[in-house]
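Submission sheet (multi-component)
Chains listed below:
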Amino acid sequence: MADALTEKGSARSWRAPRLTLRQREAIEAWLFVSPTVAGFLLFFLGPLAAVVYFSLTEWNLLTQQATFVGVKNYVDALSHNPDFWHVLRNSFVFAMGLVPLNMALALSLALALSRPFRGVIFFRTVFFAPVVTSAVAWAIVWRFLLQGEGGAVNQMLALVGIDGPNWLREPDWAMVAVIVTRVIKMVGLNMILYIAALQAIPRDYEAAARLEGASNWQIFRMVIWPLLAPTTLVIFVITMIGSFKVFDHIYLMTGGGPENGTLVLAFYIYEQGFKFFNVGYASALAMIMFVIVLVLTVVQMTLRRRDMQ
Amino acid sequence: MTSLTLRNIKKSFGATQVIKGVDLEIADGEFVVFVGPSGCGKSTLLRMIAGLEDITEGEIYIGERKVNDVQAAQRGVAMVFQSYALYPHLTVRDNMAFGLKVRKVPASERERRVREAAASLKLEALLDRYPRELSGGQRQRVAIGRAIVGNPQVFLFDEPLSNLDAELRVHMRSEIAALHQRLENTMIYVTHDQIEAMTLADRIVVLREGVIEQVGTPRELYESPANLFVAQFIGSPRMNVLPARAVAGRLAARGLNIGAAEGVGMRPEHISLTAPESGLLRGRVALSEYTGAATLLHVELEEGETALVIANGPAVPANGQEVGLEIAREHLHVFDKAGRAIRPLVQAA
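Outcome: structure written.
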């Protein structure tokens, strides 16, 4: 009897300590998020820390020699390099042209395509298809369409008596052309986000407003638009970040030209890093771009939050 | 205050006809309740009156004015929605003043009317809150307040209490009844809850599959249902309906001839218990459910049917005990093969 008890007791002492439900849930939760956390550390925070470090060095890719230079790269960009301010101006012009145009067009399309009617799926597909189209194919097609002589766009303009410019070769028009073609390519994504938001607004709000005498414009301005504010904020932030990061579109359409007229920050960083091999300077430019986007996002979110309150 | 007339109203969504010809007269200041099961078309009918749904066929008059082609805002109606439809980004004050603002009523007048409505609904302390900061009952009152502010001729309520818990529903029901007494406006109220219909209505309109089954006062519907559907829809627990052959002989022996009837209805609350050998029906208690105020007995009859009986008082037969069931002649409802009520019962020779 005594032996049995001892055996039991020893068996009990071998058992692992029992975890509480909370502890077990915490372990399961960490197991679930650990792949993402590992990926985040490895592929985001790691490279970000590396870029911060590179930006404080003078590192030529060809010689593979990195010399710590402090904030010299930042000072060079901000005070000694006129190209930087020209590029920054181009990036702002691109963003200020693209973001409002993209959002206005996306919202207009969403308002038209959020209600069921015959053919609505077809139209949604038509406007969304460019989003999933290859950027290379898109750019090549548009380069043909926008050719000065013989381009389809100019041929159509000629039908109504307009002598179209050489869109991608004239500094004044190249930026307009890349903005518009980029908007047409990406507007479908924002349209889908707005459609989802519009469909989530209960139809009773509109019915109640209509019963109270509100016109379509009043319903939009006083009911729909305020309720879309959170979606508008998300769309604004992702579109703005996307516009500052644009690279492939510029690379394929104009290569930054003509006369650096479409040379935007992301493309300039690429040139500095991988064409001229100034990795330290390119990293400093990347950090400046990061700060600009961060500041714009925080300002926008603060304004929106104040608006909502 | 104003009357309302519906003439042969029909509504189709594509090939599906949901309202199949409704004729109805609603008097000045009357409180009319549309009641019926889900999908019967009651909310669609209400939305057609509001102007939120087109009318496929027929005519709607508000007062003397035909309103088929009149915009919702011009019909002089206000509606309280099931979801309340309070704008989440506006305060209670702004929600209530919304209609006045879009109609460009001056700010001072808006404030006066909002304050008046808020005072009548005890909402003054909540005027600066947002809907998310209100309880269900408070939201309901704000929705009613928003309707009152516009000073409409007709109030429309679309299942306004269905999102509230049972206790609050009873309370809000009495508030709506009090509101009607105070304002004396014409009110049309949609519900699937027959208790709400019975307690609020001057007249009830029972709808099924897009047609009116019966229109009458709550008492008329309860005591003289026009057909089997109304008889079983109104009243809780629902009316027992037994095959006529099960009781025809015994009714004949008591001097009642039910002729070619197909079914005989008896409300559970009208049946009394008696000795097994002396009742109109005889059976055995299969189940008893104590509800506090009464006990609901499930009695298996000799004929194989089950009848529900409400037994009052402490002396309730045990499960398995044989009982007799008795009912007064005036409480019997007789239905023909098509489900139509047949009355009066013919006295046997």
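Remark: Chain B touches chain A at residues 47, 50-52, 72-73, 77-79, 81-83, 85, 87-89, 98-99, 101-103, 146, 150 (CB under 8 Å).
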